[in-house]
Amino acid sequence: MKSASSIRSCLGRAVLLAAAAAPVSCWSQDYPIRPIRFIVGFVPGGIADLMARSLGQKLTEAWGQQVIIDNRAGAGGLISMQIAAKAVPDGYTLLMGSSTQFSINPALRAGLPYDPIRDYTPLTQAALTPVILTVQPSHSARSVQELVQLAKAKPGQVMIYASTGYGGAPHIAAELLKRVAGIEMTHVPYKGGGDAVIALMGGHVQMSFGAVSTSLAHIRGGRLRALGVTSLKRLAATPEVPTFAEAGLPGFEVVQWYGVFAPAGLPSAITRKTSETLGRALGSAEFKEHFAAQGIELVHSTPEAFAAYVKVELARWTRVLKEMGIHEAP
After folding, report:
1. CATH (residue range 33-128+256-324)
2. Is the distance from CB of 41 to CB of 73 less than 8 angstroms?
């Protein structure tokens, strides 16, 4: 028969174990109970920032907690990736990630201080958007075909294009065009899509590869001319703009994806709750129409499906970039 002290000791250990387990249970039931930080690896005004602010507002409406947008631009999103990876996995730090950060940068750069698969909890894919090629209205080319013909007719003439930075989807789209069309162009990277558009309108570059949402107002206002989009289908936002495939480049497709992540080790209940709440926002007809008008297609996936997608995309871009001969920025 156990002594009274032995019984008290066992009960004491049981109480301690229950207390230790309580926070996880409380997180699952009561989360969130304070403001949430939503990290964005790019400057305000871009698609990642727009998506984070819009989804953050939806989370606030659903949960009654403030969502604070934390723009940590720099190094192609690397800074934001490091911050998110080191954060406590308690649901109070989210990351708006992109294919640049999770697929292209890891394929291009050796020795990154983060692992795109191991260091994060995928919550849901959020958006897909192609790249759009624009020129000034005075440019002699009125289509991708004419631009390619012009480049081939004057091989010694330097054609300079702007993008949102080395390794981003716009840069990859331009380099893919060079490869499949057999033309030469010189790359000038900028910190964001807005800067690239300003450079184009100022005459510092001859063309710009960028996000549809960044260029749309200038296209509609007649300040820029769109030559083509890199999706396989024309966009509802720019139905008059043909695809690169229509310009005689079959199968040409470069689409940037965005999604929401948390640090690795996020409790499964919080993972599920956050993903489902984001999914309801992304599935809203009004929300979809709002973003479609800007050339952005909203999507939603389960955490498991998104995790599998990220792995496939990383493998795909590692192979494609190797085949294209695109290496780490000098």
Report:
1. 3.40.190.150
2. yes
